[in-house]
Each structure stands twice: as C-alpha cells, then as structure tokens.
Amino acid sequence: MDDLRRQHLQTPGRDDLRSRLHARLLAGLPAEALLTDPDVTASYAHDMASFCTAGTPAAVVLPRTVEQVQHVLRTATELRVPVVPQGARTGLSGGANATDDCIVLSLVKMDRILEVDPVDRIAVVEPGVVNAVLSRAVAERGLYYPPDPSSWETCTIGGNIGTASGGLCCVKYGVTAEYVLGLDVVLADGRLLTTGRRTAKGVAGYDLTRLFVGSEGSLGVVVKAVLALKPQPPAQLALAAEFPSAAAACAAVCAIMERGHTPSLLELMDRTTVQAVNRMARMGLPDTTEALLLCAFDTPDPAADLAAVGELCAAAGATEVVPAADAAESELLLQARRLSLTALETIKSATMIDDVCVPRTRLAEMLDGTAAVAEKYGLTIGVCAHAGDGNTHPVVCFDHTDEDESRRARESFDEIMALGLALGGTITGEHGVGVLKKEWLARELGPVGLELQRGIKATFDPLGLLNPGKLF
Amino acid sequence: MDDLRRQHLQTPGRDDLRSRLHARLLAGLPAEALLTDPDVTASYAHDMASFCTAGTPAAVVLPRTVEQVQHVLRTATELRVPVVPQGARTGLSGGANATDDCIVLSLVKMDRILEVDPVDRIAVVEPGVVNAVLSRAVAERGLYYPPDPSSWETCTIGGNIGTASGGLCCVKYGVTAEYVLGLDVVLADGRLLTTGRRTAKGVAGYDLTRLFVGSEGSLGVVVKAVLALKPQPPAQLALAAEFPSAAAACAAVCAIMERGHTPSLLELMDRTTVQAVNRMARMGLPDTTEALLLCAFDTPDPAADLAAVGELCAAAGATEVVPAADAAESELLLQARRLSLTALETIKSATMIDDVCVPRTRLAEMLDGTAAVAEKYGLTIGVCAHAGDGNTHPVVCFDHTDEDESRRARESFDEIMALGLALGGTITGEHGVGVLKKEWLARELGPVGLELQRGIKATFDPLGLLNPGKLF
C-alpha cells in the first residue's frame, strides 16, 4: 500500500503539478513563507490525535499578511488544490491533519495583538496569537480572556476558534464561542469577508461569526478576530474533596449547581488520574481516593463559598474536604488537574482522549458506564472531567504496538461515545470532530442536520477545497 | 392603487387558490386553529413598527402541536404559499408583518413550559411561552432567565429567538442568543430538525442553533427550545445620577466599564425622555437634567459597588448622585426607565424607534450626533439607551398625518443609522432587520456577506417561502 502510494507520488504528472503550485504560490509570497522540503513539510502533517490518518502535503505556507492568505486561497482555487488551515497543531481530533497533495496553511506567523481596549472590553488579534500570550497581555490591562484549554501555553487563538475550545474556566465563563464578536475571514476563492461587530450587541443578519467558530477551517480562513474580554476577577481559591465513589462526587456536583453556586472551576479526577499525577509529579494527592473533586471560586468572598460547598460535599459522602489555605496552595491543586492528561499519557505508549459531554444530571451514569467499558475491554481508562459542565475526558491508555489492544482501544472509544449519546449528551464538548469523530457526528446530527450542514459547506466552499475530509 | 388591489384580490383565481389552501390546511388542523375571516386575519397583519408595509394574509393558523406546524409547512410547500411565523407581534422592525396571500403562522398557542431543571439549569419550552411567564416560573425554582426586552410581559420566547432580543439585563447577562442551547425547528418542507444540545457545552458540527437565533423566521419555524438558566442573583440596588450633558454621562459609562465594574444595568435617559416619563407617570425625575444615568448591581455588596460608581459619576461631572435606599426604591427607578418608550410615544401621533449599537467608546459621539440630526430635521428625537452596551434607542417623534414631517422622520431615522455605521457600530443591537432596515442590512454586511447570507437562506428554504421580503 505504502509502495503504491509512493509510486503514485512520483508520477511525473504529480511532480509537474507541485512545481506549478510552488511557482504560483511564490508569485505572491516571500520565499521564506513557502516550505517544500518533504522532510520539513511532513512535520506539519498532523495534530496530536491518535488513530487519525494524515496525508502528505504538497507545500506548507506560513503567511504573514491577509493579502498573502488571499493569494494562497486564490491559487488553491485556480489549481483546485485542497487547503488545510492550521494553528499550533495541539488539536485532539485530527482536524488539522494534512490531506494528500494539499497546501498546509499555517497561521502561526500571523501572531500580532492588534488592539486591546479596556473600555470596549475587546481585543483584536491575528489568528496565530498564542492563547497564553493574549491572556497575559490583557491581564496587564486589568482584563481577562477566559478560554483556557489545557494546551493554552502553545495553542493559538485561530485554532481555538476553529475548534470552539473550552477549558477549566467554562463552568463559569463559557467556551471560546462566547468570546468571538467578529471575524475577518478569507473565503475559499480568496475574497475577504468581515462578520460580526466590535459592539457589545448586534443582530444584523444571520450570525456568520458563530458559524465559523467550531467549523474547523472548513468554511474559510480566519485572519483576524475581535474578542470580548471580561474584567479580571479576584484570584480564585480552591478546595479538594475526596469521595469513596465517582457517583458520590457527581452527587456533590449536582448539589453544588442545584444550590445556585457559581464556581470558577469544578473538576473531577478519578483514582487512575490521581495516581498517575502523583507518580509523575509527587503532588501528594490522596492516592487511595476513588474520585477527587476540585472546586474554586473567584468571588468577593471565596472562603465563604468554599465553606458552603464543603458542606455539600460532606453531605454527598466526601471522606475528606481540604480547602486551600491561600492562592498559592490553590494554584498547586489546579496544577495537579492541569497535569492530568500528560500524566495519563505516561501509563501506556499511546492514548485516545475522549470528550463526551452529558447533562450534569447524567454525569454519574457516564462515569460508571465508562468504568464498565474499561472492564469489558480489559483496558485502563483514566477519567478527568470538567464536572461542572458534564464534560468528561476518558483517556484510553493502550500499547500502540499491540494490535489487539489498539483495536480494543478504538472500540472502547466508540462505545464511550455511544454511551454519551444515549445519556442525552454530545460526542464532543470542546475538542471538535476532525477525522476522529466523523462517523459519530453523522449519528449525532441525524440525516436532516447533516444535509443542512453539507449545504452550508457547499455555500461557502463550492469546490470543497477547505480542509476536505473533516467533520463529514 | 387600493382599488386595483381589491380588484386583484377578487379575481376568481385568487379565491379558488384560497379555498384550496383552506381545505388543504383543514385536512391536518382542527377547525378552531384556522382563521380565514378577513376582518380577523387583518389584525394579524403587522407588528409594532412604523413605516413597514404589511400585506393581506390568506389565512392565519394557530397550531398547538409540532405535527400541525409540519402539516402547515408541507401544505405551504405543496401549494407554494409563503409562510410568516409570528409570536406576539411586539417586534419593532416589521419582521412579523404579513405578505400578501401568505399563511400567518402564529405560535402563541404553543405555550407550554415542558421542563425546568435546576441541576442542568435548563428550561425546555414551546415558542409561544410569554417571556415574563417563563421568568416567573423559573424564579420559583431559584433560577433566572435574564433576557428582558421592554415587551417582556407580552412577547414570546419564539419571537425573542427570532429577533435575538436584548433588554436591560444585557450589560451583565448578554442577549437571548446566549441562552439558546438547542432547538427543534420545522423546516420549510415540513421536516423536523433538532439542533444543539441540552448540555453545558457542545461543538458537534456547525452551530445551527445560533444560525436560527435572529433569523426572523426566515430559515425555519422554532417549535421547541432548550434554554440555559442562571441561578437567581440577589435583588439589584440602583442609583440615579444627573449630568449636565449626554457626553458627561457617556464619560461616566466609559469610566465605569474601564474600572472593571460589572453592573447589572447601566441605562441612560436624555432630557426629552425624562420629561416625557414625568409627564406620563409623575415619577418626580429631575426635569431639568440633560442626561440621567441609572446604574444597578446585583452583587453580594451592591451598596459598595454603587458608592464606587457614584464617585466615578461625580468625577465625570454628575451634578447629583442619588443611590436608592432599598430594593423598592430601585425598582421605581427601573420602572421609570421601562416607561421610556411608552412615554416618548405620547409626544406625537407616531414614533420610529431606532436601535443602533456603537462601541461604548463612541457613545457620546452617537448621542451628540443624534441631537444634531434632530435639530437638522426640526424634529423631537428622545433617546434612551442601554448605555453599558452602547445600544441607543433614538425615538423619532412625528405626526403621521403630516406628510412633510413623516418624510423628515424617515430621513432622520436613516441618517441615525448612517451615523451608527460611521462610528463602527451596527444598525441593530436587538430589534432585528425585518422590513424596516433591509436596505441598511445590505450596507452593513457588504456584497460578500450578503451573498453568503442569501446562500444560507437558499440552503434552508430553496423555494423562498419562509417570511419572504424580510432581512434582504
């Protein structure tokens, strides 16, 4: 199969096409913006997802201006070459993976923060700005950009918009979608579209801005974004509560939300996750707990809020409730949570990270069901979860050189998604569909929804050149 | 002209078509769901906007079930009859106005609250539920549905979704769009589409839910909505501040937002508005003030927040700052604001209410510019504004029997929208486009945006039967 593909790549027709493509691209790009060395371009072929095929790009382009992006898209349309837009490739669904003979359009060099306005509470940025860079820049002005995916130190705002990223903040502050007010987008044919607004409100026509958020580069290439900012909240204060079962921890989550609390963070780590984090970082977390709940508040009186939540945890069966003494101790607890995925990745040679989100009333069933799936397939599946959102991250750990274990990993992954749908949830709370969850998207949307989504795709990209093979 | 039209209506062809339509509709509807008496159907022909043409409906249908809505849409598709979906007709842009020979599809009888869940913090409702009815029902469970358009005692959730309504709450809580998680929608051909989710997060495919919000019934008919709820905040406490000029009041607004405050309400009433409210309701507002700013907090310590805001107002030039003593006094102040539109309507025989939203840094220019427009055209234009959002409501008062004054009213209205766009704003912050702002939508979107919006419309409604002639 590989030999056949290589042969195909070496046919003169393909080489001619590549040369022509490179020449046409260089007509509107500086030489350093075009990468064609196959050893180099191969490193742009895929994001961080397992089990996702990735093709061989014909070229990688790193534009610095809107005009250069427009040139790339015009060239792609002229030559009918697919384009795969990319940020930092920290995605977990293969949404940024190359297709064969495509142009990989990496936006990482368009990384300027163009404007931060504390009165209008907006930032205007290019797509390659790293999430943490923006967060720190606005913090210096007393402002707060909430979306904080685990990869926030490396992932880009453009990538966050493409996948509608979430993070730990969402239980109080919502996902990326809620912070995107307006966009400049280069369409498949190279035309520039401006959507949305700089204002706090606006309802002029269909909400094209929101349509682009989470569209995984399949409708256009975001080249500028107007983002909403919040005032910086007080430092958050956290507590940790140990539970004898995942179900008991979930009961506490439900009680906290039912009583009207608004925590700034409400996270769950199961026993496997706690132990993995301890092994990796000697955090001194309670090694024997079945479920560890972390809750934080950034309210004016977080200690009082934590005391109330501590009582609800105790009533739900917590065996121990430990409030952090101060912001530094709180930060340590949150670091433990942030290390979860990395720690779980050390268990076996490979992982698949799921992203199912269920109504929080069904969270206990989701966690117990996931444990049953792990047992059925004889696998280790550690779970951390944005519990306050009902958004779970079951991490299937497996040896990728073991064919049978790999097969079981994939099957268990699918079974977890089926469980999520059966519980009234969605297959993806914040990671997106990409290649990994394509067939599951069709199941979640149903035929009518799928047909309309395809109709929208055809309206924006009639030649099907933008990130083909993703989503559906 | 009227004679010609009547003649046309009485041609046998049209009568035949109507009879056939009525018969086909009755095949799937109970008799009481169909209104055909022209005297009755005429009362469904328009919403509350001035200067918007309205046609003569062929029938009004008041369905009670999803199946009945599907039957209506199937019939409409079969017979190629346009359908105008309607709520309580409190809209201000003519978006619910009938077109000639259409079916008016009034959703007001589908008014059940199907579910309120305090753990998942959602309500599931039919489209005809009145905003205030929902707000009170969820308040009984300790929950809060923020969107509060002025018409909240009569307007329906379906109408709110259609126009993406705002209200006084938006400066802290955002608009209707932010509370719609999922929808059931009957498409133009009668098929049922389910979009979105019941979960806190979800990014599976393009955001069709958000596409329907603000689409003014032009893409499908919403028959069920999953709405997000918040925990009920503490009662808000308000202050009123008098300013010697609109610009000074706007400077205070900017200072309040720049300092990171999060008021639950930040409203402005100009002198004309204050005087009109006093005349109507003897509220004892300061009759000579140039601009009255109302600010409220629903935080744990609203008095402290109000004290800080009071200082900012004084620094910006407020001549008097009067904090309310308690919740009851606060409520009185808010009532004064809520009466503004009604009070301004008493000045002349007719009004046109504009809805331009600008970045809050440009609010002073917007208000001064509006005053200049009023002077230029020799008209009274009272302004109240959701100042914290930069969302102004210039109310052009005119005598509709005076042809010249009516012309000047329309011209001034247009000039105000031009000013809003020039200041980086949008033509509509929360009222929608309807018939009233059609040509202005095209200007705001530009040709590329307009083409894509039309493409989306064609994807959902290829025959163009849903609310034709609205938006674009």
Automatic annotation (TrEMBL), chains A, B:
UniProt-listed PROSITE patterns: FAD_PCMH
Domain FAD-binding PCMH-type per the UniProt entry, residue ranges: 53-232
Q: Which InterPro entries match?
A: FAD-bd_oxidored_4_C, FAD-bd_PCMH, FAD-bd_PCMH-like_sf, FAD-bd_PCMH_sub2, FAD-linked_Oxase-like_C, FAD-linked_OxidoTrans_Type4, Oxid_FAD_bind_N, Vanillyl_alc_oxidase_C-sub2
Alphabetical list of Pfam families matching this protein: FAD-oxidase_C, FAD_binding_4
Q: Which UniProt keywords apply?
A: FAD, Flavoprotein, Oxidoreductase
Its required cofactor(s), as named, are: FAD
Q: Does this UniProt record's set of keywords contain RNA-binding?
A: no
Instruction: Name the domain of life.
Output: Bacteria
Any one GO molecular-function label of the UniProt entry: oxidoreductase activity
The region annotated as signal peptide is none
Q: Which PANTHER family match?
A: GLYCOLATE OXIDASE SUBUNIT GLCD
Tell me its family. Answer: Belongs to the FAD-binding oxidoreductase/transferase type 4 family.
The protein in question is named FAD-binding protein
